[in-house]
Design goal:
This protein is α+β, with helices and mostly antiparallel strands and 313 residues long. The protein contains eleven helices and ten strands. The chain is 39% helix and 21% strand.
C-alpha cells in the first residue's frame, strides 16, 4: 500500500514540478513499463553480436537550410549487421517491405495500392503477436485508452501510424506517422525531416543513398558502440539532417509500443517524457497530428551509468 501512495505522490509531484519547469522529471511508472518491454523484446539486436557500429568523429554544426557539412566519418556507421536475423524476424522483414511504399517528398500525394494495404495489415498482425505489443496493449486497456478487442486495437494502431494526412496544403494526403518516423521525408528538396529508424538507416547506407557524417553529443558524454540511442548527422539523397536521433538495435514493435503508449496517455500536441531504459536516461518526444502521429523520437540525455557498472544488454 505504501508503494501505491508513494507512486501517487511521485506522479503528483512530477505533475506539479512539470508545471513550473520546462525540463520533465523522471516518469517512474513508464520507466518501469518500458524496461519490462525492453526485457520482452526478444527481436532486439545485440550490439557486437548482431551488429557492429563505428561512431567515428563528432559532427560539425550545420547552418539552418544549408546542405553543406564536413564529413567526420569516413566509414559507414554500420560496419556489420546480421542480415539473416533481419530476414528471419517477421516484424523486421515485414517492416522492410513497407519502406519502399512512400513518396519521399512532402507535397507529393501518396497513392496506396491494394498490395500496400495488405503489407500494412501483415506488418500489424506480426507486431500484435509479439509479447512486447501484447504487454503494451494490456497496459493501455488497464488505463482505459484502448479496447481489449484485438481488432479494435489494430485499427487504433493503424489510425495512429498509417492514417494518411496533409503535411502540405493544396494536395492530396502526403504523409503519415509511420512514413515520417520509420522512412523519412524531404521538404522542398532541401530539408530532411523525420527518419528516426536504424533499420532504414542501415539499408539506405548499404545502398549508398545515405552518408553518415558523425555523431552529435555533449563533450562529457561520448557515445559507445553499445548505446541504445544515438544522435547522428547524415545526408540522404544529398539532403542533410543536421541532427537526428534513433534507437539502435531495437525491434519495430518496441518502438511502436513505446511511442503509442505516450501518444495515448497524453493529449497535448507535443509531449516529452523522461524515462530510464536499461540504465540510459532518455527523453521520448511525441508530437501529434490530430488523431494520428506527427513525429516521435528518442533523445539520449545521459548514459554515463554504463561507465560505472557492468550490465548485460
Amino acid at each position: 500500500m505504501a508503494l501505491k501512495c508513494c507512486g501517487v505522490i511521485l506522479i503528483l509531484s512530477s505533475f506539479l514540478f512539470g508545471l513550473k519547469a520546462s525540463r520533465p522529471v523522471l516518469n517512474q511508472e513508464l520507466s518501469t513499463l518500458f524496461n519490462e518491454l525492453w526485457t520482452l523484446d526478444v527481436n532486439r539486436m545485440t550490439p557486437g553480436i548482431d551488429y557492429t557500429i563505428s561512431v567515428q568523429g563528432k559532427a560539425s554544426f550545420v547552418s539552418p537550410g544549408s546542405n553543406v557539412t564536413q564529413d567526420h566519418a569516413a566509414l559507414p556507421l554500420f560496419s556489420n549487421v546480421n542480415e539473416l536475423k533481419l530476414r528471419n524476424v517477421t516484424t523486421i522483414s515485414r517492416l522492410i517491405t513497407l519502406l519502399d511504399n512512400y513518396e519521399r517528398s512532402i507535397g507529393v500525394a501518396e497513392q496506396v495500392t491494394a498490395e500496400e494495404l495488405t503489407e500494412i495489415n501483415l506488418f500489424l498482425d506480426a507486431v500484435l503477436k509479439t509479447e512486447v505489443m501484447k504487454r503494451a496493449h494490456r497496459y493501455l486497456v488497464s488505463k482505459r485508452q484502448s479496447s481489449s478487442n484485438l481488432r479494435a486495437f489494430k485499427n487504433q494502431l493503424r489510425l495512429i501510424w498509417f492514417n494518411l494526412y496533409h503535411r502540405q496544403r493544396n494536395i492530396g494526403p502526403d504523409s503519415c506517422g509511420f512514413e515520417h518516423v520509420f522512412v523519412g521525408e524531404t521538404k522542398s528538396g532541401t530539408e530532411l525531416v523525420g527518419f528516426h529508424n536504424w533499420i532504414q538507416f542501415y539499408l539506405q547506407e548499404k545502398n549508398t543513398h545515405l552518408d553518415y557524417k558523425g555523431y552529435k553529443a555533449k563533450a562529457h558524454d561520448l557515445p559507445d558502440q553499445d548505446d541504445h540511442v544515438l544522435n547522428l548527422q547524415f545526408s540522404w539523397h544529398g539532403v542533410i539532417k543536421p541532427v537526428a536521433s534513433a534507437f539502435i538495435g531495437t525491434s519495430p514493435e518496441f518502438e511502436m509500443a513505446v511511442f503509442t503508449i505516450i501518444f495515448l496517455m497524453n493529449t497535448e500536441r507535443s509531449t516529452t517524457v523522461l524515462v530510464n531504459i536499461d540504465q540510459c536516461q532518455i527523453e521520448l518526444v511525441v508530437i501529434r497530428h490530430g488523431r494520428s502521429l506527427g513525429t516521435a523520437y528518442p533523445k539520449l540525455m545521459s548514459s554515463n551509468s554504463r561507465h560505472l557498472t557492468q550490465h548485460s544488454h
